[in-house]
Structures are given as C-alpha cells and as structure tokens.
C-alpha cells in the first residue's frame, strides 16, 4: 500500500499559514496590500484587542464579482501573476496567491465585496466556505478576520502580548502610509484612532501625522538618480534620532522592504553625525526596473535582492552625505513654552483605555509655515562652496564650568563644548594624515620601546607593512617587544608612546581587519585621547584658535562620536526669554 499521499488543501493551507501568518501584523499586511492592489484611495483598519479577536479591513477599491470572491480563497489563486515571465516584472504588492487561503484556514472570515454591478458575501470557517449570498452594491471590499488561530491553539500561544502585537501593526501601517501618501489610512484599535492620514500626496505631511511637528520640522528632502535607480524621500537632521532602526523606512517601488545591508549603509552615512547605537529617521523610496530586483524570496515579500547593490549603496551614501554637508546643523537651545508645538499623535497606551488623554492639537497649516521658513534658511546653505566655513566667525566671551565656551556673533549666542570641538578638529586632522600617500616622519632621539602581550605581539607583527605605510617604523627587539625607530610628525608631542600603544592595540584586537575601518577607528581613538578635556584650562587666545579651527572642519557640528559640539540661542530666542520680543 502506498505511503505517499496528497495532503488535503486545508492541511496545506494550515502549513503555509505557519510562514505567511506568524502574528496579527501579517494578517493586516496581506489584507492592506490586497486593498492597495485593488486601486483603493481609502483604507480603514479596525482592530479588536490588537487584532487577536477581530481584524476588519475596508476599502473603496474595484471590488470582486461572486466568482472571484470565492476563488480568491483557493490556494495559489491570483489575479496578478500568470506565467514564469511575470516573475521578472512584478509590480503588484501581492502575487503568490497564498495569503487569503492561509489566513482563512486558521480563522473565521467574512468577505463583503462589490464591483459596482453585483454584491457578494462569503463566510468561511477554518478554510471551508459556509455561506455565499448577495449584498449591497457599495463598491469596494470589507474583509473581517475573527478568532485568529482558534483551531491551532499552539500558534495562538506564541502570539506576543497585546501591546507588542499592536505595536507591530502600528509600525507597519505607519510605513504603508509613508509608502502611499496619496491613500487615506485609518487605524483604529478598541475604538481608539491610532493613525489617520488624509491622502493628500504630501509625504512631509504624513511624516507630521505620524511623528509629530517637532520631527517634521527637522526633516529635509533628498533625491538622487543614476542609470539604474532613482531615489526620493526625507532624512532627519542628525540631532533627531531614535534608539532603534524602526524609524528607517526603505521602500522599493512603494513596497516596504527589509534589507539589513541597505539599512546598515544608511546608518553609516550618518557616521560621526549621530551617537553610536542611535539611528536617524529616514523615508526613502527607491524606484527601479522590476527586472533588477527579486522579491520572490519569502512569503512575506519583504525581503529583497538587488542585482546592482553596490551602485545603489554608493548612490544613497553619496546623496545623504552631500545633503548633510549642505545643512547648518547647530541645534537651537530655545526654551519651550506652554504654547510650543507638541506631537499630536496619541500614545499607543491610549488604545487600551477608555479615558481620552488630552493632547493639544496644532493646525497643520502652522507647521507648514514653519517648515517653509526652515526650507528657506536651508536654501541659503545649498549654494555654499564647500571650501568656505559653514559657520560664521564666533567671538569667544568666556567659559562656563571650565568646559563650555560662550561665544557670539550677529546671529546670537553660542555654547561650545571644548572637548567635543577639539575631538572633531583632531579627528579630521588624524583622518587626513593617515589617508595621505606621503607623510612626514621623525626619528625620536631616544627610541621608544613597546612591550605587548604575546598574542597581541604576534598579530601586530603580521601588520608591519601596515604600520610602515603610516610612517611607523618598527623593529623587533627581544621577546614581545618593538622598538619604534620612526613615527609620523602629527603625533602629539609628549604623547608619542601613548599614541603608538593605542594604534598597536587597535590592530591586535581587530577580528576582521579592514584598513579603512582601522584608520577611522584610530582617528577617533587618538582624537578622544589627545584632545583637551572638560576642566582643562584654556585662555581666551586658545578659545579663539579652537573656534576658528572648528569652523574650518568639514563637519564642525558634532564630535566623532556624534555628540553636538555647539548649540545656539538666536538673538530672537534671547529677546523672547527676556520679554524684549513678544509672540
């Protein structure tokens, strides 16, 4: 008797649901993407208990007739893909024909749809069609998924808590709203509105509606293109960052994607502009011929492969770095008042309580005016020649707490962190020196000896040619000891041995050695160690030299670790605080 048998379609769908439907967000994702593919201009997502009890997605798309409404729940039934050639030109969000039957196999579903000619209601229980009947002719589709995983309790057990499930849905809907600013999105959980956009096609307005006015004012438009890719979107000022990557939204032809290599490169473009382990707010839409990408990697269709990845990475990196160089990045230290603009997006916790938490709302028009003013300010810097200082000359007036230099010019008052400023200056000096093809060296009058641990000594010995390329001439001297015969002239006087020790240690502790990363790390380390510190006394002449040298830096606004070097109170800010100027 044969042991090999074809499994039933319902069993196959339940197995597929293990990949397609891992959490409530996956259900929302598949249904919303179907609504977008149906040409909807408005999509409403209503949840009960974060979608665990019920998920309803309504749209005003093209709808379906009765035949399509029933066939849609058959495995691999799709209206978007028909032959192998279509795989190389996928433009719709959905195409595999797995989502609806997989969802239906582990829930109760009610589908109400109309193409404007005929209305249909289909009810499905655990993958079996229980009822088909007529409905009204209101064009569009409403699909309700109830009691998710009711017949697979082991899957239900692995759902996260309600807050986590809801947070995943909110994050996804936020990204979809950013992907399609021309579509109205509304997200409701337990009768509380968590997201509402107006479909006005204004991407910056969607940023405002998701992140609030303070963030929207600190976003700047970017765009770039080459022969294969066109990119547009918004990036945040370095002073605005998050503690995780969730605010990095990368899209390909309006599809929300997941690509760690791309996200890592975006973060690296902000290197030294933001602190380590902090992440910018990014919305980038990458437009590319579908033939150059592969999205048929995973059933969720969020993973993607690019055929010309290096070209794309270089384009994005150059675009972001160029835009950051054009901006004046001195944070304003203005004092907030009770009437200051506040974020109007309500916290997620509101969704679980009936009492409304009052958050004063601000008309969007006020923010637009503010954003236009910021854009006009930035435009004046777009035309700056790169060799000119990006900050006007500042005149030092004194120092506070032996750390913060107070300076002024006609624009206002500036407070400069002397250590952060010196770090930036030294970092750029060391970076330039280590990258130069030729360099000046000096032979110490008394050779410097450096003792190392045996394991570190072995690794360092393997990189003798590297040290020589930086102007460091080493000789082996006995067991685990080097003699330094020559070193670069840019080593700080009196700290030559400390600098050499640091460089050797960096080589010895590197797991995967990269010369460029080594140069970067060395420049940061030396800049931190060799710069003046907080509480180090400097006189007025030294302050002036520090500020003038800082102005000449490529990026005078942050230290190599991403902390600000300088903040400002504009003249108007000061006049407001002292009531010389009234709003």
User: What is the overall number of helices?
Assistant: 18
Radius of gyration: 30 Å
What composes the largest sheet? 8 strands, mixed
Which shape, going by the Cα principal axes? elongated
Structural class: alpha+beta
CA-CA gap between termini: 89 Å
Question: Could you name the ranges where pLDDT drops below 50 across 5 or more consecutive residues?
Answer: 13-19, 79-92, 334-386
Integer average pLDDT: 80
Percent helix, as a range, is 25-40%
Strand neighbour order, sheet with most strands: 5-4-3-6-2-1-7-8
Strand % is 15-25%
Structure notes:
The protein has 583 residues and is of the alpha+beta class. The protein is 35% helix and 22% strand. It is built from 18 helices and 25 strands. The strands form six sheets. The chain has an eight-stranded mixed beta sheet. The protein has a five-stranded mixed beta sheet with strand order 9-10-15-12-13, sandwiched between helices. Strands 18-19-20-25 form a four-stranded antiparallel beta sheet. Helix 12 (418-435) packs antiparallel against helix 16, helix 13 crosses helix 15 (496-509) and helix 15 runs antiparallel to helix 16. The chain is elongated and about 95 Å long. Mean pLDDT is 80; it is low at 13-19, 79-92 and 334-386.
């Amino acid at each position: 008797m044969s042991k090999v048998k074809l499994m039933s379609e319902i069993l196959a769908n339940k197995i597929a649901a293990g990949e397609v439907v891992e959490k409530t967000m996956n259900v929302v994702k598949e249904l919303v993407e179907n609504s977008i593919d149906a040409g909807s201009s408005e999509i409403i997502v209503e949840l009960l208990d974060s979608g665990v009890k019920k998920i309803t997605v309504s749209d005003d798309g093209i709808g379906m007739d009765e035949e399509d409404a029933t066939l849609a729940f058959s495995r691999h039934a799709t209206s978007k893909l028909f032959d192998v050639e279509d795989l190389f030109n996928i433009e719709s969000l959905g195409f595999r024909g797995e989502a609806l039957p997989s969802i239906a196999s582990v829930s109760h579903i009610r589908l109400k749809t109309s193409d404007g000619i005929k209305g249909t209601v289909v009810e499905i229980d655990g993958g079996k069609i229980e009822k088909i009947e007529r409905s009204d002719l209101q064009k569009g589709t409403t699909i309700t998924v109830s009691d998710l995983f009711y017949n697979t309790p082991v899957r239900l057990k692995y759902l996260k808590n309600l807050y986590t499930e809801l947070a995943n849905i909110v994050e996804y809907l936020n990204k979809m709203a950013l992907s399609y600013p021309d579509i109205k999105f509304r997200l409701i959980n337990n009768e509380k509105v968590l997201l509402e956009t107006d479909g006005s096609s204004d991407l910056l307005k969607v940023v405002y509606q998701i992140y609030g006015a303070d963030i929207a004012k600190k976003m700047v438009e970017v765009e770039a293109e080459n022969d294969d890719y066109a990119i547009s979107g918004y990036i945040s000022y370095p002073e605005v960052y998050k503690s995780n990557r969730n605010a990095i939204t990368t899209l390909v032809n309006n599809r929300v994607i997941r690509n760690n290599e791309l996200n890592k490169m975006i973060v690296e473009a902000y290197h030294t502009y933001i602190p380590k382990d902090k992440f910018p707010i990014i919305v980038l839409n990458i437009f590319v011929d579908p033939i150059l990408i592969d999205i048929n990697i995973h059933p969720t269709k969020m993973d993607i492969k690019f055929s010309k990845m290096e070209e794309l990475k270089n384009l994005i990196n150059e675009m972001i770095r160029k835009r950051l160089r054009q901006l004046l990045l001195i944070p304003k230290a203005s004092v907030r008042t009770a009437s200051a603009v506040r974020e109007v997006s309500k916290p997620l916790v509101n969704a679980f309580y009936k009492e409304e938490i009052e958050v004063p709302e601000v008309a969007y028009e006020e923010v637009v005016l503010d954003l236009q003013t910021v854009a006009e300010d930035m435009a004046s810097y777009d035309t700056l020649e790169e060799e000119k200082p990006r900050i006007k000359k500042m005149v030092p007036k004194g120092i506070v707490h032996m750390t913060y230099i107070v300076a002024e010019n006609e624009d206002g008052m500036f407070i400069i962190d002397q250590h952060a400023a010196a770090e930036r200056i030294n970092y750029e000096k060391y970076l330039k020196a280590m990258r130069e093809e030729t360099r000046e060296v000096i032979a110490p009058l008394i050779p410097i000896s450096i003792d190392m641990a045996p394991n570190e000594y072995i690794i360092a010995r393997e990189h003798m040619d590297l040290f020589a390329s930086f102007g460091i001439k080493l000789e082996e001297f006995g067991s685990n000891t080097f003699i330094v015969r020559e070193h670069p002239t840019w080593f700080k006087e009196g700290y030559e041995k400390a600098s050499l020790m640091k460089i050797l240690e960096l080589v010895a502790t590197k797991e995967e050695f990269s010369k460029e990363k080594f140069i970067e790390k060395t420049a940061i380390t030396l800049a931190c160690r060799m710069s003046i510190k907080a509480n180090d006394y400097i006189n007025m002449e030294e302050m002036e030299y520090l500020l003038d040298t800082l102005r000449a830096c490529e990026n005078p606004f942050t230290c190599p670790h991403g902390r600000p070097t300088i903040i400002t109170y504009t003249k108007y800010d000061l006049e407001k605080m002292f009531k010389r100027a009234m709003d």
